[in-house]
Amino acid sequence: MQMDLRTVTIAPQRQTYGHVARHIGGDKPASRYQEGTIGLQTTGNQHYRPLWDPAHDYFDESRTKLKMADWYAFRDPRQYYYGSYVLARARQQEAAEAAFDFVETRGLADALPDDIRALALDLILPLRHVAWGASMNNDFIAAYGYGTGITQPALYYAMDQLGIAQFDTRLGLLLAEPEALDAAKEAWLRDVRWQSLRRLVEDMFVEQDWFELFVAQDFVLDGLLYPLVFQTIVDGDLAQRGGAAVAMMTQFQNEWAAETRKWVDAQIKAACADDAGNAALIGWWIAKWTPRAAAALCPLAEMGLGDRSAAVMDELCAALDARAAKAGVRA
């Protein structure tokens, strides 16, 4: 008796889920990101309206002035769904841990010049309160936004900001005693150099239009703050003056800012392309928040750059305008 083993290919009856196929057009193979994003927004069977906001449903398109024909036009160019996001951040966490270990085991923090150590503590440690505020604002966007393509990565953004607050705290504990955290909190609450930024963060807490909040926090404030502090001051100025150890301990903030900038710009570009009125509306929001953010960051620029601060802030604002124009925003 002889038995022949053969490989038989069984063609699947469908390439993906029906709701995904209807959106991407035809029964084509879908990526994990598409299957984990498209069609997940709640659109019906919302029961009663919330008693605390009877003018809206729980998931309501009218919670923003933005008009979208297709809320799934918001896509993440990084293709992050939960699995890919967690794997990417785990790799970055390992790299950041290695950098902290390198600085600590070789005593590089102890070798920092006193003025560099003092500037790093004065400049970076209070920023953990800013990061916490950014996390809260992106939690709001994730909770009240519409369209899984933007609310899902907004929640990732919120978690990332909590991680950045923790990295800022670890830097402070490596450079100084725990009392430095109390001093940074006191500076955040009392020091005149931080009050404009604190007021800006707190004003964002009461902004009810979730896409305007996205523009104010993720595009404008973070679009100026991270290039100023972590790219220009820490990586540029402090590293050249003997503060390379500080730059090593803030490498996550720099890499994260460059990565998330692609996602932020993609959302604004999608909104501008979807409806002609959105480009002017977003332009108005950017013009509203940019002067406030730039003025709030001026004291930080002066702390780190001295006489160069005004010129650097002008360059950063010009770069932000260029990003907006490239995304299709009308001034």
Automatic annotation (TrEMBL):
Keywords: Monooxygenase, Oxidoreductase. Its EC number is 1.14.13.-. GO terms for molecular function: oxidoreductase activity, acting on paired donors, with incorporation or reduction of molecular oxygen, NAD(P)H as one donor, and incorporation of one atom of oxygen. It comes from the Bacteria. The keyword Oxidoreductase applies. This is Toluene ortho-monooxygenase subunit. It comes from Sphingobium indicum (strain DSM 16413 / CCM 7287 / MTCC 6362 / UT26 / NBRC 101211 / UT26S).
